[in-house]
Write a structure and sequence with these properties.
The protein is of the alpha/beta class. It contains twelve helices and 20 strands. Bound molecules: guanosine-5'-diphosphate, 6-O-phosphoryl inosine monophosphate (IMO) and magnesium ion (MG).
């Protein structure tokens, strides 16, 4: 039995989709524990590129059952668009199952996300505009709509009525928008209810029974540690807990069952949306990483902000998640750049900080303290063993390992499924 959690170690887009795809072939279930259709996970199989938003990338694994856990917020329109798109390409999404406790994103959550961002003006978070924050806010405020509410029309109507009582006041009086009719939301949900019902399960029970029978489960976190609502760069975060503890809450699998926590980390750093980013580059190297790394957001098409590897963040992520291993991605992007800076600590107003500063204000002032290593010039995209890598690439990986709080067990040398060096297989322990 194995229960592995995949967690983004930086600000997202580290390559969680690719890592899931590689491990997904060895597990029985791939569970998405948090987030919604704000994610964008890329999988490249046999030259074919798939971009998953709401569905776990495990939907492409032949034998795994993909599950949307209770911690996910589900947009039904986006769900069926994605399923139809995948099936049109020959993929099989028929095994998909959804927790009855997952919350539903409604059209009013999407409207609120967009108007709230507009009202924030210069202080906007740069959300994906998918209604994620307002849906989680309703969940915590206990006025959310859950998947199971689709089974009881009168309860569903009551819940929508009480949510809209307040939402319409906000939309009309604060945001100068039209009120939303209860019937319109009822019709929206009823249009999907019959199709979604056969997919709905008691996911907590199914997954724990599977573990008891010795099956393997992979949890594919969305977003990342630095976007976590508790541990990230608040308020420039998403509204869920993408960290390892959140994966337990978002799936109903207890912490004592977890056999490995795999942090996905890029060989440099990127961020989409607003918020502090100490190693961000504003010179030609930022453009270089953006172009050569193909750093364009899957979900919103925005260019990703780029910077050097930040070992302070990696150590922090290793701590708050309890990483047992890292999957280092995109090492190939650094080929031929001469010298590679690595941020090892911060200078905050003249004081050296080897670990995350106490406050966000200090983090906003953090200036990276770099050490540099020589890059390699050889093409590494065909390397499959650690010893195939040029010595300088090996040295870079080993230095990152020393600085980052967990072993670099997997190394990505290209986007393809096979372009991976496995130093220590997390499934074979
Ligand atoms: P996710 O959100 O963490 O799943 O990551 P994204 O899919 O948003 O972004 C990661 C991008 O990097 C995708 O385009 C992947 O195909 C690509 N990728 C993943 N691993 C590697 C790698 O080792 N090398 C290269 N060159 N690309 C990679
Ligand atoms: P994956 O899973 C990168 C960012 C948004 C914004 C903030 C809040 O592909 O790594 P939200 O719509 O969630 O309320 O936006 O979080 N964000 C991501 N950035 N990758 C993601 O997902 C992200 N999901 C949300 O850009 O800054
Ligand atoms: Mg992504």
């Amino acid at each position: 039995m194995a229960a592995i959690i995949i967690v983004g170690a930086q600000w997202g887009d580290e390559g969680k989709g690719k890592a899931t795809d590689i491990l997904g072939g060895k597990v029985d279930y791939v569970v998405k524990p948090n987030g919604g259709n704000n994610a964008g996970h890329t999988v490249v199989v046999g030259g074919e590129k798939y971009e998953l938003k709401l569905l776990p990338a495990g939907v492409l694994s032949e034998n795994a059952t993909p599950v949307l856990g209770n911690g996910v917020v589900v947009n039904l329109e986006a769900l069926f668009e994605e399923i139809d798109g995948l099936e049109a390409r020959g993929a099989n999404a028929s095994r998909l199952r959804i927790s009855s406790n997952a919350h539903l994103v409604t059209p009013y959550h999407q409207t609120l996300d967009r108007v709230q961002e507009r009202f924030l003006g210069k202080r906007a978070i740069g959300t994906t505009g998918r209604g994620i924050g307002p849906t989680y806010a309703d969940k915590v405020a206990r006025v959310g709509i859950r998947v199971q509410d689709l089974f009881d029309e009168s309860i569903l109507r009551q819940k929508i009525e009480s949510a809209l009582d307040v939402k319409n006041q906000m939309l009309v009086k604060m945001y100068n928008r039209k009120a939303i009719e209860v019937d319109a939301i009822m019709d929206y949900f009823m249009g999907y209810a019959e199709r979604v019902k056969p997919m709905v399960i008691d996911a907590e029970r199914t997954l724990n029974d599977a573990l008891a029978q010795g099956h393997h489960i992979l949890m594919e976190g969305g977003q990342a540690t630095m976007l976590d609502v508790d541990h990230g760069t608040y308020p420039f975060v998403t509204s869920s807990n993408p960290t390892a503890g959140g994966a337990c809450v978002g799936s109903g699998i207890g912490p004592t069952q977890i056999t490995g926590v795999l942090g996905i980390v890029k060989a440099y750093t990127t961020r989409v949306g607003a918020g502090p980013f100490p190693t961000e580059l504003f010179d030609k190297w930022g453009d270089y990483l953006q172009e050569v790394g193909g750093e364009v957001g899957v979900n919103t098409g925005r260019k990703r902000r780029c910077g050097w590897y930040d070992a302070v963040i990696a150590r922090y992520a290793a701590r708050v998640n309890g990483f047992t291993d890292y999957f280092l991605t995109k090492l190939d992007v650094l080929t031929g750049i001469g010298e590679i800076p690595i941020c090892v600590a911060y200078d905050v107003d003249g004081v050296r900080h080897d670990e995350m500063p106490l406050t966000q204000s200090e983090f906003h002032h953090a200036e990276p303290i770099f050490e540099t290593m020589p890059a390699w010039d050889e093409d590494i995209t065909g390397c499959r063993e650690f010893s195939d890598l040029p010595q300088r690439a090996q040295d870079y990986v080993l230095r990152l390992e020393e600085l980052s709080g967990a072993p670099m067990s997997y190394i990505g040398v290209g986007p393809g499924r096979d372009q991976t060096i496995v130093r220590n297989d997390i499934m074979e322990r």
